[in-house]
C-alpha cells in the first residue's frame, strides 16, 4: 500500500541535500566552535556562513540571528526574554487566542510572574481585528506577539498592518513565523518586525534547530546561562551540524519558494474540486484566499475527527487534527473553538491536510477520493 504523507505542518522530511550537507559535520568537522585551533575555526566558519545565509533570507543583519533548539525555544526566548528585560517600561503583553501553545503557554507563565496578558479574539475566518488590537494597546504595553500564519488553519494575520501600527509605540512586535517562513516572502524591515521565530524541521531541515531574529534595538534577558555563545544571548555549545543543515534548508526554501507555493495552492484547489465532484458536505475552516499555501483545514459535517483520522491512516493517508489526541478522547482545538465557539460541530469534525516535499498531484487526487469514500461511509451517505 502506498502511504501518503499529508502532515507536513507537523514536521517535514529532510531534503536529501540537507542530509548530505550535514554529514561532514558529524564525521570529519567536529571541532568546538569556541576553540581557537584549526578544528574549532572550521566549525566557527561554518556557523558564520550559516548565520549570514539565514539573516539574508529575512533582510536582517547577521548579529540579529540567535540559533536556538527550535521554534518553541525561540518563542520562549522572545517572550520571556523581552518581557523580563523591559519590565521597567510596563508589564502588559498582547497576543491572540489562536497562537501556538509555545506562545500561549509562555504567556500563561508570564501571567504567573505578574505580567498582564490580553488575548485578542478572532473572527470566523480566524483573523484578529486591527481595531481590537488598537483598543487593547496601552502606554504600558511592552510586547505584542501575533503569529504570521496559523499552524492549524493556515490563516494569515495582518502582519504588515500590525507592524505599521506599532511603529510609533514602545511595544516590541514578535511573530511566530514557523509555518509561514520558507513559503511566504518575509522582510523584517518592511514589516516592522522586531522578533521572529523559525524552526528548521518545518522547511525540510533537521529537528532540534531553529532561530530567533531579534532586532539590534531589542533588549533580551537570556533563558540559558553558561558560556558566551550567541553573543551572550543563548549559552551552550552550538549544534554545528544542525545549524549547517538549517542554512541549507533555508537556501533551498528561498530558491524554490514561488514554485512550491504555486504547487501547494494547486493541490488545495484540486482536493476541494474532488470533494465538490464527489458531492460530500464540507466546509473550509479559515479564509481560503488569505492563507498559507500548504495548509488546508476542512470540516466534514456528521463525521468524528478521530474516526476520520483512523480511517485515513488505514487507507495509507497521514493527516491530523489540530487537536491533542489522547486515549479515547480528543481535546477540542483551541483555534477552532476561538473561531466558532465551544458548541460548534466543526471542532469535532475537522481534519488538517498539509502538503510538502514529495507530494504529487496523483497523491493528492488519491487522498481526496479516499477521503470522500470515508466521509460517505461514516455518514452513511
Automatic annotation (TrEMBL):
EC code(s) of this entry: 2.8.1.7
Keyword Iron-sulfur: yes
UniProt KW DNA damage keyword: no
Molecular function (Gene Ontology), one example: 2 iron, 2 sulfur cluster binding
Keywords: 2Fe-2S, Iron, Iron-sulfur, Metal-binding, Pyridoxal phosphate, Transferase
Cofactor: pyridoxal 5'-phosphate
SUPFAM superfamilies attached to this UniProt entry: PLP-dependent transferases
Ranges for domain Aminotransferase class V: 4-366
Enzymatic reactions: (sulfur carrier)-H + L-cysteine = (sulfur carrier)-SH + L-alanine
NCBIfam families, alphabetized: PRK02948.1 (NF002806)
Sequence similarity: Belongs to the class-V pyridoxal-phosphate-dependent aminotransferase family. NifS/IscS subfamily.
Protein name according to UniProt: cysteine desulfurase
Source organism per UniProt: Paranoxybacillus vitaminiphilus
Amino acid at each position: 500500500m502506498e502511504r501518503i504523507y499529508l502532515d507536513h505542518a507537523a514536521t517535514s522530511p529532510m531534503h536529501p541535500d540537507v542530509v548530505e550537507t550535514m554529514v561532514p559535520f558529524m564525521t570529519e568537522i567536529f571541532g568546538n566552535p569556541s576553540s581557537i585551533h584549526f578544528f574549532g575555526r572550521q566549525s566557527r566558519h561554518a556557523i558564520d556562513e550559516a548565520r549570514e545565509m539565514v539573516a539574508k533570507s529575512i533582510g536582517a543583519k547577521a548579529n540579529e540571528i540567535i540559533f536556538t533548539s527550535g521554534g518553541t525555544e525561540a518563542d520562549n526566548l522572545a517572550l520571556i526574554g523581552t518581557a523580563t528585560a523591559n519590565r521597567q517600561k510596563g508589564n502588559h503583553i498582547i497576543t491572540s487566542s489562536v497562537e501556538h501553545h509555545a506562545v500561549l503557554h509562555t504567556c500563561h507563565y508570564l501571567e504567573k510572574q505578574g505580567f498582564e496578558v490580553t488575548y485578542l479574539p478572532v473572527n470566523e475566518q480566524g483573523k484578529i481585528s486591527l481595531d481590537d488590537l488598537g483598543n487593547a494597546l496601552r502606554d504600558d504595553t511592552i510586547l505584542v506577539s501575533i503569529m504570521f500564519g496559523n499552524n492549524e488553519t493556515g490563516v494569515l494575520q495582518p502582519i504588515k498592518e500590525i507592524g505599521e501600527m506599532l511603529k510609533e509605540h514602545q511595544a516590541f512586535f514578535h511573530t511566530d513565523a514557523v509555518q509561514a517562513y520558507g513559503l511566504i516572502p518575509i522582510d523584517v524591515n518592511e514589516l516592522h518586525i522586531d522578533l521572529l521565530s523559525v524552526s528548521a524541521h518545518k522547511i525540510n531541515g533537521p529537528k532540534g534547530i531553529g532561530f530567533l531574529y531579534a532586532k539590534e534595538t531589542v533588549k533580551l534577558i537570556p533563558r540559558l546561562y553558561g558560556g558566551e555563545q550567541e553573543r551572550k544571548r543563548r549559552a551552550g555549545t552550538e549544534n554545528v551540524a544542525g545549524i549547517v543543515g538549517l542554512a541549507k534548508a533555508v537556501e533551498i526554501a528561498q530558491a524554490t519558494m514561488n514554485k512550491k507555493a504555486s504547487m501547494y495552492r494547486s493541490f488545495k484547489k484540486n482536493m476541494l474540486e474532488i470533494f465538490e465532484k464527489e458531492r460530500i458536505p464540507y466546509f473550509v475552516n479559515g479564509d481560503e484566499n488569505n492563507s498559507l499555501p500548504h495548509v488546508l483545514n476542512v470540516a466534514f459535517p456528521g463525521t468524528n475527527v478521530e474516526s476520520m483520522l483512523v480511517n485515513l491512516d488505514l487507507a495509507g493517508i497521514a493527516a491530523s487534527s489540530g487537536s491533542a489526541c489522547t486515549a479515547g478522547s480528543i481535546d477540542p482545538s483551541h483555534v477552532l473553538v476561538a473561531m466558532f465557539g465551544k458548541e460548534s460541530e466543526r471542532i469535532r469534525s475537522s481534519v488538517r491536510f498539509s502538503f510538502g516535499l514529495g507530494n504529487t498531484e496523483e497523491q493528492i487526487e488519491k487522498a481526496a477520493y479516499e477521503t470522500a469514500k470515508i466521509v460517505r461511509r461514516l455518514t452513511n451517505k
